[in-house]
């Protein structure tokens, strides 16, 4: 105990001396790995379907770049975002939270809780895409409320740096958005235009028929248009289609882990017989 008190006393003395000299130990703002890779022209993979810190830890050593936290269709709320994004931080994975609506308070509160990026559903017009930027970016780009995110702790000039490390993804998942895609692509500061198959198919009248050729052609054409415009395209992938989408030019691949697990179970069962 005596040695512990001496160590604490010594540490306090050093800290006091540094403060007296005006020295501060400041942290760097965590790098957004997905943004870094996309800006470099590389592809990036984000895992879907992990909804606990234990699962994020389990898959943390993998070579993927980010974790998709499901706040629209899943059970992840604001309280869970803090610890789940903290688990992502430990492993150096970009945390991307899909919010449940395109509403300013929902978006910036998710970022305040520590998410390094947001994915916003049903963005169907340029105006709606612009509202995403306004909610997620600080002035002078947007109108995000001036509140220190969990990512800001110990970071000097956080408000000047945060915009560069905040990832914005908009979901193109309605036929209305497909028809308005040219105008949506003109909106600056969106990092990824993500074409989502299920809701898109439903909006086209193909409910539950994501693999209908008409739907697949619509997805391919939209992705090609995004790439041609010089923007980053994203979509949902499996082992069966990732090569196809890579050839089109898609660079953000969202991969649900449940598909790999279920396929692995079936393959194991077959081999056991």
What does this structure look like?
The protein has an eight-stranded parallel beta barrel with strand order 1-2-3-4-5-6-7-8, surrounded by seven helices. The protein is 48% helix and 14% strand. The radius of gyration is 21 Å and the shape is globular. Helix 3 (53-59) packs parallel to helix 4 (78-91) and helix 5 runs parallel beside helix 6 (126-136). It has helices at residues 2-20, 33-39, 53-59, 78-91, 104-112, 126-136, 158-165, 175-179, 181-185, 197-203, 213-228, 242-248, 257-272, and strands at 44-48, 66-70, 94-98, 117-120, 167-172, 192-195, 233-236, 252-256. It starts with a helix and ends with a helix. The model is unreliable at 1-25 (pLDDT under 50). It has 13 helices and eight strands. The protein has 273 residues and is of the alpha/beta class. The longest helix has 19 residues, at 2-20. The protein has a single domain (29-272), classed as TIM Barrel, CATH 3.20.20.
């Amino acid at each position: 105990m005596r040695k512990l008190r001496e160590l604490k006393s010594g540490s306090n003395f050093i800290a006091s001396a540094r403060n007296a000299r005006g020295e501060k130990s400041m942290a760097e703002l965590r790098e957004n790995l997905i943004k870094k890779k996309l800006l470099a022209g590389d592809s990036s993979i984000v895992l879907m379907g992990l909804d606990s810190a234990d699962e994020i830890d389990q898959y943390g050593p993998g070579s993927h770049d980010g974790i998709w936290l499901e706040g629209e269709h899943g059970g992840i709320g604001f309280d869970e975002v803090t610890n789940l994004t903290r688990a992502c931080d430990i492993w150096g994975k970009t945390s991307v939270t899909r919010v449940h609506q395109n509403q300013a308070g929902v978006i910036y509160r998710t970022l305040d809780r520590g998410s390094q990026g947001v994915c916003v559903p049903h963005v169907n017009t340029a105006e709606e895409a612009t509202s995403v930027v306004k909610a997620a970016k600080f002035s002078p780009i947007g109108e995000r409320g001036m509140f220190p995110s969990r990512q800001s702790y110990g970071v000097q000039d956080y408000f000047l740096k945060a915009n560069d490390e905040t990832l914005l993804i908009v979901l193109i998942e309605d036929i209305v958005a497909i028809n308005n895609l040219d105008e949506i692509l003109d909106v600056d500061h969106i990092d990824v235009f993500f074409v989502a198959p299920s809701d898109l198919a439903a909006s086209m009248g193909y409910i539950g028929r994501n693999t209908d050729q008409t739907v697949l052609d619509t997805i391919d054409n939209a992705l090609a248009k995004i790439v041609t415009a010089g923007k980053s395209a994203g979509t949902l992938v499996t082992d069966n289609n990732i090569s196809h989408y890579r050839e089109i030019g898609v660079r953000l691949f969202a991969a649900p882990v449940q598909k790999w697990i279920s396929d692995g179970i079936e393959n194991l069962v077959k081999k056991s017989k």
